[in-house]
Amino acid sequence: SDDFPLPPARHVSAKMHRDTSQRHEHGITFMFAAWGQLTDHDLTLAAETKDPVTRRDPDCCGGGRVNPNCMPLEVSVHDPFYSHYHQRCINMLRSEAGVRPGCRLGSRIQVNSLTS
Where is this region: Disordered (predicted)? Predict the structure, then answer.
């Protein structure tokens, strides 16, 4: 909101999670595992978005008709990992939208397949 564009998500990820040979197990606690499992379940158990016509996973990087739930991540040609595979886009979809309590308008609600 201060007129500076945000950097691409993949750029931030590559800078924050560099591959190093140094190990830091002394700083990892059980909370690390608990947080990882919470994050994993929140992402992997989210209800999947399907294309309403084909009922398949939309291809957000293929061009052509773009599904409104697509949020493709652009990858730089200089990316430290994906550049080796000539990949310029990461296919990313928003999870299926849920209905807000009382069917009120507002921000999007994520549906989790365990709690839906």
Answer: 1-21
Per DSSP bridges, beta strands 73-74 and 89-90 are antiparallel
Tell me the one-letter amino acid at 9: A
Rounded to two decimals, the pTM is: 0.63
Task: Tell me if 86 is assigned to some domain.
Answer: yes
Q: How far apart, in whole angstroms, are the C-alpha atoms of residue 97 and residue 108?
A: 6
Q: Note whether residue 59 is domain-resident.
A: yes
Based on its alpha-carbon atoms, the radius of gyration of the chain, rounded to whole angstroms, reads 18
Using CB atoms within 10 Å of the CB of residue 89, give its burial: 0 to 12 exposed, 13 to 18 middle, 19+ buried: middle
Number of domains in the chain: 1
Pull the structure tokens for residue 6. 């945000």
Q: What is the pLDDT tens value at each position of the chain, 116 positions in all? A: 578 888 888 888 888 877 766 666 677 788 888 888 888 887 777 777 888 788 888 888 987 777 888 889 999 999 999 999 999 999 988 888 888 888 888 888 877 776 54
